Amino acid sequence: MREGILFVISAPSGAGKTSLCKEIIDFFPELRQSVSFTTRFPRAGEQDGVDYFFVSPLEFRRMVDAGEFVEWAEVHGNCYGTARKSLDLWQSQGMDVVLDIDCQGAAQLKKSCDSAVFIFILPPGVDELRRRLTGRNLDTAEVIERRIQNAEGEIREARWYDYIIINDRLELAAEKLKGVIMAERSRTCRILPLIRTTFPSLRDT
Ligand code: ADP
Ligand code: 5GP
Description:
Blueprint: E1 6-10, H1 17-27, E2 32-33, E3 37-38, E4 53-54, H2 57-65, E5 69-75, E6 78-83, H3 84-92, E7 97-100, H4 103-112, E8 117-122, H5 126-136, H6 141-156, E9 163-166, H7 170-185, H8 188-195
């Protein structure tokens, strides 16, 4: 059994991260997606324990203080964090995990987990980002404006990610994302430990 791979996916809000994560979870049923904790209020249709664990700021603070998050950050005025518990369990079972988190959280993981794979999703342009945020019809005009203003700073972070995928056509972007996952699973450093006993000539490598 190989160690599970952590796929960290970031993007400015509205770029299509949630849509793309759904595509890959449907395609790779063995892939797990971490459900984050947040202090944000649920949007219409969001379910507690499915989209997020919705908690009070007080409970979130308690979890921070107790060291229950592998990373957490304040994003667009709310707190979001990834619980250590489920990640540890999946990784010990050799499961690959997808994290849909912002670039501050991704930067924290970059320091603590050098085998993680960092993927940045970009929209084709800022006008299209605004169209998608508005068309999604889930956030107020004020929230949309705040997210667009934050997008510039977030996009700047794309430079240090391992992969950048432009989400122009959803199906095409999903194919690229699947390609990254498959390629990363085939990396020599991940495969070699698994096949050493099968091929004697690889034993001393
Ligand atoms: P995020 O999770 O990054 O905030 P979403 O996945 O919720 O973004 O996508 C934002 C909106 O844009 C949604 O209404 C979604 O259906 C739409 N969308 C996502 N990808 C595309 C695409 N490639 N072309 C057009 N619309 C898209
Ligand atoms: P939304 O409110 O649109 O669901 O998410 C807003 C932002 O928070 C997105 O950029 C999303 O990736 C990020 N986010 C969601 N969960 C987490 C998390 O656990 N940690 C961090 N750092 N960011 C998160």
